[in-house]
Amino acid sequence: MGVSEYQVDDGNDNALSISCPNSAEDGPMRAYASIRGKQYDSAESGGFDVIVDGETYGNPFYTDCRVRADNFPYFWEALRKANHLQISADGQTVKLPTRNIDHVLRPLDDPENSCRTAW
Fold first, then answer.
1. Separation CA 35–CA 33 (nearest Å)
2. pLDDT tens digits, one per residue of 40-70
3. Residue 99: enclosing H or E segment and its boundaries?
4. How far apart are the first and last CA of the chain?
5. CA dihedral defined by 80, 99, 87, 92, rounded to 10 degrees?
6. pLDDT grade for 25, boundaries at 50, 70 and 90
7. 16 exposed, middle or buried (CB, 10 Å; 0-12, 13-18, 19+)?
8. Is this structure's pTM higher than 0.85?
9. Helix H segments across 29-96?
10. How far apart are CA 41 and CA 56, in angstroms?
11. In the 8-state DSSP scheme, what is residue 26?
């Protein structure tokens, strides 16, 4: 039993955290955002948006329906290649660093990547 966790923050109470259980039995991945110190959870209604190179993905880590799960691989690849990353909720948007993001986040089909959707 374990969890793979990935986090990026700007040092100013703004962060994106991705939590991926290492076992399918432990459920799908989940993400959390902190925007100016306020916490948001991808599993909650509304969650938070992720903006990658100007394209907004509405609560992309919420994959509890087939359509969202089917769209997730496109978001993940965009995230891995991000030059500009922002998170947004409640009318507030903040920038986060992207340095080495493509090396930290593995492709979804990588055997060492335990991030999986709910479907």
1. 6
2. 999 987 899 999 999 999 999 999 999 999 9
3. none
4. 21
5. -160
6. confident
7. buried
8. yes
9. 66-80
10. 17
11. G
